[in-house]
């Protein structure tokens, strides 16, 4: 790299540090992290979204967990030191000093020379900071931009190892005392040969040391592709990922470069295992939140690693060895399902959406409503419907304007649509924003001739509900399923969440068509409360699968609500091997088999494809989706799908979401999944 381009590259990397300081500052302002120094160092202030707050909370929590563990385990030693690599405008030193944790520890921070100079000026110019360091009055010399008794700030390019070593020696770093190295999203911006050399240098030159890393992982799944693309566009490519794509590769990297112990976990594991339950609950209730999929995907694409060598056996590791079953083990796949773009539907922008609902209103005619997506080049909640119909072997789509006086009623996410006849459907629940109360119900009335060649307007009517039925409607991420009891048809509304309750476990029977709430006895083991589950009609009852439970943990249970003479009974369906817990999937029943499509799970080694559960035997088989014919990442969460029994195909419409700070990804066009090879009748 020529020096000119190297300078511009270092500027781009510094930009990521400034951006992360602003995000941490915003998270602190909302109470996620306690840190009064961030705002003094971050410069500009900007309020970030709840998803970003959670992301920076877990990052700060992981680093703090390991740093405080190191200080605790070495508190009886005469001297220790911390070396923060690529520290940027981080407040670590000031926080630790303020907490009284640095009695015998010196903190060294290293970053690009201009970053270190800026930070030194900030500290000198701000009494709240300089008073903590104890301004020595000494001017910084050369690469040492600030020098206090227990705080040294160095301006050195980390990739220049010999210069780094010389400057650290000059600043007083002592190779013989226990040292904690911190690299928080730093090594990945360096060429692998240089970051590897740095890891090995630290192991070779420091007999007693720990090395803490927090950075990205899993580049090849759909979320990983979007993540990589984002950093490439910023001109800050993530170099580590190609050579070290998963947690196991990172662990091997450190063990192969002179470190004797190494524990690593992704952030879903860290949140579950290392954050006490009361603290989890505190964070989950700080502000209205409804982006679970993106939160869990973000967490599965970042890891924290703690390596050590030469430390007392009682001190290691900084991270606990996994006390729960590891999520990273591969999920066994029984085969694959081919995916193909649906010809002729690629140019329909209104089909790029998520949190919507699609329903087959009659053979080969599909109605898609609601969600958040792209219309007229803008991202917004979707007001218009789309009707898809199949003619001469091809799918076509057309937009239908809905006429409804209350605009809010028409723009809903995470609702359900149930078809009661070929001219009538019922919309139940949904939301506008996560802080608003749920929405009620709507009748959708369409003419018998409704299809994409000339759809007449779909008439929309607000349903005036009796108070008893109101409770059924004010929810989202729920399910509404047709059931039969004593020959009468009901809609079974189950689970979901509301503005007041993060997860619901209640149910309601609505008698159709007048939607009166009926009391029907239900026996058997009650399923755990859940939302974002799937529900299908089967044999007059309902099959419930997966979902997100009370502690924001995916569920792997399958229940059948079975009709009996005097009511219904919950019955647990045992699957073998056990169903991998998941949520935000879709589901269909075909010839005694339950098909689960996509979703989010915690097994970071792969993404959910199609799972087939034989309802007679409980046999559970997972199939990977073959996406080689797609030119874009297929995100199968917050999507909708329609099963076409004659063709043995699944039409997947929409899906995707807001990928942390990496931008919004919406699947650009509907996709057909061919199931003929996996649905062969045995």
TrEMBL record:
Annotated function = Probable S-adenosyl-L-methionine-dependent methyltransferase that acts as a component of the wybutosine biosynthesis pathway. Wybutosine is a hyper modified guanosine with a tricyclic base found at the 3'-position adjacent to the anticodon of eukaryotic phenylalanine tRNA. May methylate the carboxyl group of leucine residues to form alpha-leucine ester residues.
Q: Quick check: keyword Methyltransferase in the entry? A: yes
The record's subunit annotation is: Interacts with RNF144B/IBRDC2.
EC numbers on record: 2.1.1.290, 2.3.1.231
Sorted alphabetically, which keywords does the UniProt record give? Answer: Methyltransferase, S-adenosyl-L-methionine, Transferase, tRNA processing
Q: What is this protein called?
A: tRNA wybutosine-synthesizing protein 4
- Pathway linked to the protein: tRNA modification; wybutosine-tRNA(Phe) biosynthesis
Name a single GO biological process: wybutosine biosynthetic process
Q: Which reaction does it catalyse?
A: 7-[(3S)-3-amino-3-carboxypropyl]wyosine(37) in tRNA(Phe) + S-adenosyl-L-methionine = 7-[(3S)-(3-amino-3-methoxycarbonyl)propyl]wyosine(37) in tRNA(Phe) + S-adenosyl-L-homocysteine; 7-[(3S)-(3-amino-3-methoxycarbonyl)propyl]wyosine(37) in tRNA(Phe) + S-adenosyl-L-methionine + CO2 = wybutosine(37) in tRNA(Phe) + S-adenosyl-L-homocysteine + 2 H(+)
**Lineage, uppermost ranks:** Eukaryota, Metazoa, Chordata, Craniata, Vertebrata
Q: Specify the species.
A: Leptocoma aspasia
GO molecular function terms listed in the Swiss-Prot or TrEMBL record? tRNA methyltransferase activity
- Gene3D superfamilies per UniProt: Kelch-type beta propeller, Vaccinia Virus protein VP39
Family listed: Belongs to the methyltransferase superfamily. LCMT family.
Enzyme class per UniProt? transferase
């Amino acid at each position: 790299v020529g020096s000119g381009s190297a300078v511009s590259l270092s500027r781009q990397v510094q930009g990521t540090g400034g951006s992360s300081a602003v995000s941490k500052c915003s998270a602190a302002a909302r109470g996620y992290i306690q840190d009064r120094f961030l705002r003094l160092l971050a410069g500009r202030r900007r309020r970030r979204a709840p998803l970003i707050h959670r992301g920076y909370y877990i990052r700060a929590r992981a680093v703090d967990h390991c740093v405080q563990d190191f200080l605790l385990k070495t508190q009886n030693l005469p001297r220790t030191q911390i070396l923060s690599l690529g520290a940027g405008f981080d407040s670590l030193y000031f926080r630790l000093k303020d907490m009284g944790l640095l009695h015998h520890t010196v903190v060294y921070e290293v970053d690009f020379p201009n970053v270190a100079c800026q930070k030194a000026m900030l500290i000198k110019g701000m009494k709240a900071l300089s008073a903590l360091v104890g301004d020595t009055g000494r001017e910084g010399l050369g690469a040492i931009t600030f020098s206090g008794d227990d705080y040294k700030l160095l301006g050195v390019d980390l990739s220049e190892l010999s210069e780094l070593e010389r400057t650290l020696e000059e600043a007083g770093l002592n190779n013989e005392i226990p040292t904690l190295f911190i690299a928080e999203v730093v090594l990945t911006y360096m060429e692998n040969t240089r970051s590897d050399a740095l890891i090995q240098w630290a192991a070779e030159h420091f007999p007693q040391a720990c090395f803490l890393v927090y950075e990205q992982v899993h580049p090849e799944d759909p979320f990983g592709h979007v993540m990589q693309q984002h950093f490439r566009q910023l001109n800050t490519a993530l170099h580590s990922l190609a050579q070290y794509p998963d947690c196991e590769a990172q662990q091997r990297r450190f063990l192969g470069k002179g470190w004797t112990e190494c524990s690593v976990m992704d952030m879903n594991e860290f949140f579950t295992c290392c954050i006490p339950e009361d603290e989890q609950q505190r964070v989950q209730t700080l502000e209205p939140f409804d982006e679970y999929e993106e939160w869990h995907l973000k967490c599965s694409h970042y890891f924290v690693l703690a390596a050590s060598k030469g430390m007392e056996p009682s001190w290691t590791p900084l991270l606990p060895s996994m006390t729960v079953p590891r999520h990273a083990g591969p999920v066994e796949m029984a085969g694959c399902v081919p995916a193909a773009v649906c010809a002729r539907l690629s140019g329909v922008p209104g089909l790029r959406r998520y949190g919507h609902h699609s329903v087959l209103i009659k053979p080969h005619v599909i109605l898609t409503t609601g969600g958040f997506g792209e219309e007229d080049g803008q991202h917004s909640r979707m007001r218009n419907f789309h009707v898809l119909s199949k003619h001469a072997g091809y799918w076509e789509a057309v937009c239908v304007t809905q006429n409804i006086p209350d605009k809010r009623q028409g723009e809903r996410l995470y609702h359900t649509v149930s078809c009661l006849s070929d001219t009538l459907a019922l919309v139940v629940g949904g939301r506008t924003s996560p802080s608003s109360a749920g929405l009620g119900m709507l009748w959708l009335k369409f003419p018998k001739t409704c299809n994409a060649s000339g759809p007449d307007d779909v008439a929309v009517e607000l349903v005036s509900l009796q108070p008893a039925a109101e409770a059924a409607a004010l929810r989202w991420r729920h399910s509404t399923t047709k059931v039969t009891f004593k020959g009468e048809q009901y809609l079974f509304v189950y689970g979901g969440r509301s503005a007041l309750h993060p997860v619901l476990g209640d149910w309601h029977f609505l008698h159709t068509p007048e939607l009166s709430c009926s009391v029907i006895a239900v026996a058997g083991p009650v399923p755990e409360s859940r939302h974002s589950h799937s529900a299908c009609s089967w044999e007059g009852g309902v099959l419930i699968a997966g979902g997100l439970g009370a502690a924001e943990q995916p569920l792997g249970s399958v229940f059948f609500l079975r009709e009996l003479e005097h009511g219904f009974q919950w019955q647990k369906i045992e699957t073998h091997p056990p169903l991998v817990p998941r949520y935000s999937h879709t589901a269909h029943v075909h010839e005694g088999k339950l098909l689960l499509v996509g979703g989010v799970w915690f097994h970071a080694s792969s993404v959910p494809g199609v799972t087939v559960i034989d309802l007679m035997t409980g046999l559970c088989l997972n199939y990977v989706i073959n996406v080689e014919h797609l030119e874009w990442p297929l995100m199968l969460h917050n999507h909708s799908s329609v099963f076409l029994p004659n063709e043995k195909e699944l039409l997947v419409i929409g899906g995707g979401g807001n990928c942390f700070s990496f931008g919004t990804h919406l699947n650009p066009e509907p996709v057909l999944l061919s199931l003929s090879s996996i649905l062969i009748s045995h």
